Amino acid sequence: MDVSGRRWVVWSVGLFAYLVGVMNRTTFGVAGLDAADRFGAAPAVLSGFLVLQLLVYAALQIPTGLLLDRFGARRLVVLGALVMAVGQLLLALASTLPLAIAARVLVGAGDALTFISVLSVVNAWFPARQVPVLTQLTGLLGQGGQVLSAVPFALLLHHVGWAPAFVSAAALGVAAALAVLAVFRNRPAGVTAPVAAASWRDVRALLRSSWTEPGTRLGLWTHTGTQFAGTVFALMWGVPYLVAGQGMSPAAAGALLTVLVVVGVVAGPAFGEFAARRPMRRSWLVIGVITTTAAAWTAVLLVPPPVPAWLLVLLVVVLAAGGPASMIGFDYARTSNPGYRQGTAVGIVNIGGFTASLLVTLAVGAVLGIAGGYTPGAFRVAWTVQYVVWGLALVGIVVARRRTRRRLVEQGEVVPPAWRPLRRREVAVERAAA
């Protein structure tokens, strides 16, 4: 098989590993109310499961980026799949809170190793013009793991029981590890690997240069402002909100979560093509997604519950755009950093959205506990914590964009003003560069 065919096989296996990782990440959100009964957990404690998982995930992003630059993607994806499988198996057997917490820590650690490793293989195997679209497809098709947790996993959970459902998830993780071992490769044969940092001094210099690159910080704020709203909804509080706060059945709530995935898959390639063709206008797409998401939540929260079904569907459709928009953050990291530090830069970017998700998840759980538990009124108050993050992210994007453009001018690039529509000649230049 030639390189052009081989790259699609490698990507497909990496995508499968990421899809399984997303399924493992989201199973606890689907099982949230069951977990509350099984472990006797209050809302704040229940949110603490996901907070801890996201804390582990976010804390490991920079170490994962450094390990990726040094050891390559294949080892990290295999290790991540096996660690998540152990975590799900432990959760299947857990009957006490400490064991359940340890299980979610393992899931978060394995999850942290997977996504940016798969993205690095996309960068290595595909032409630069295709990378933005393939990055979007990787992120969005991988979100099909939410469908696996929302439909087949939920069916197992509610008809067979807690242990068989989580054992099945663990088995799928082992299958992903075996597939990666058999097929997945870091780069095409004959392509030289980037030189890795050889000492701690080199590692510190790598981190410093990645962080001081304005494009990396622009990617970080992009990921922060766009990713968290959909993540918090899908991973933790979406199903409890729809069931306890809006009176939907668990089946209907799970079906609505699949809309989140389907719409994202449709939007992803369009966003990727836009990023490839209009790199100087990517930030406006990001800002538009953040403001639209905030507006949709405002409309929902202003209506006394139960909210009309069409408005909830509209909210989920808008939330679905956050995933594709967050992937533009990785595109900023790729186009702003040389190959030998792209793993580290992508790790820095990936911290943003998951740190925001962690904080918002914790805040929603805390507000629910104060406001009376799983009630429509309490949920209505709790969701307002999101506005703080949206505001900070928008300020960060505007500041980082200005500095990124200044850096491009210093490097001799022609940079049109951010506020002005591109002229025909500038569009032609962008297309030629893409």
From TrEMBL:
One Pfam short name: MFS_1
Q: Where are the transmembrane segments?
A: 7-24, 44-64, 76-95, 101-126, 162-184, 218-239, 251-272, 284-303, 309-333, 345-371, 377-400
Quote the cellular component terms of the Gene Ontology held in the record: plasma membrane
Every Major facilitator superfamily (MFS) profile domain range: 10-408
* Keywords noted in UniProt: Cell membrane, Membrane, Transmembrane, Transmembrane helix
What is the membrane topology here?
A: Multi-pass membrane protein
Keyword Ribosomal protein present in the record's keywords: the answer is: no
Where is this protein localized, as stated in its record?
Answer: Cell membrane
Tell whether Hydrolase is among the UniProt keywords. no
The molecular function terms of the Gene Ontology recorded here are: transmembrane transporter activity
This chain belongs to the protein called Major facilitator superfamily MFS_1
Q: What is the lineage of its organism?
A: Bacteria, Bacillati, Actinomycetota, Actinomycetes, Pseudonocardiales
